[in-house]
């Protein structure tokens, strides 16, 4: 199978995504990513928050040298930046680091300090959503590490779906995995993970908006704790 031609229309891509979502529901994560690699070639990328490198590792098996897109918000834990650097050094991937249009200092000067405390939605829009939209323009499809068991808002995540906002095919190859499945894969393949995952953090985002989780909380409870906000806006 050859890589998808650029002249495919948005309607064609949407239909392709919806069909693949049905047909690949019972496929393995590697099979889903192999389909993506065969279908889109270098117009396909993986996005990673560097919480772990599971999807990047899986994708590198299907498409060696695959682009792995990382958003450097300027607010990451040092451990997250270290994980990115380690992934770039040891895995067969091409790490692409995206940055916002403004540095943290420039944003503080325009909007005031600690925008993340006063208007976290705007902060996420400026430092995550907009840079990703710019960074994905050259791709037809992107893969994420979303899992259905992470939170109620992700419970219906398709393995292949349509990203209406960006007009791209969105692939979530480990959507059906449990945390135990992730850990098994990490152990079997020696996959890099963020050190914070062994220090009480179940989900790793920007340092000012992330805390350790308490026993019995879901994996996303440590993000924007005390607020109704549960997503940064990248996924809906």
UniProtKB/TrEMBL annotation:
The record places domain Phosphoadenosine phosphosulphate reductase at: 49-211
**The organism sits in which domain of life?**
Bacteria
Residues in the active site?
232 (nucleophile)
Q: In which pathway does it act?
A: Sulfur metabolism; hydrogen sulfide biosynthesis; sulfite from sulfate
Main localization category: cytoplasm
The reaction(s) this protein catalyses:
[thioredoxin]-disulfide + sulfite + AMP + 2 H(+) = adenosine 5'-phosphosulfate + [thioredoxin]-dithiol
Subcellular location as annotated: Cytoplasm
For this UniProt record, the keywords arranged alphabetically read as follows: Cytoplasm, Iron, Iron-sulfur, Metal-binding, Oxidoreductase
Cofactor binding note from Swiss-Prot or TrEMBL: Binds 1 [4Fe-4S] cluster per subunit.
Q: Which GO terms describe its molecular function?
A: phosphoadenylyl-sulfate reductase (thioredoxin) activity
Q: What is its EC number?
A: 1.8.4.10
The cofactors required by this protein are: [4Fe-4S] cluster
Q: Which residues bind [4Fe-4S] cluster?
A: 123-124, 206, 209
Q: Which family does it belong to?
A: Belongs to the PAPS reductase family. CysH subfamily.
Write down the HAMAP family for this protein, in alphabetical order: CysH (MF_00063)
Question: Per its database record, what is this protein's job?
Answer: Catalyzes the formation of sulfite from adenosine 5'-phosphosulfate (APS) using thioredoxin as an electron donor.
Q: What is this protein called?
A: Adenosine 5'-phosphosulfate reductase
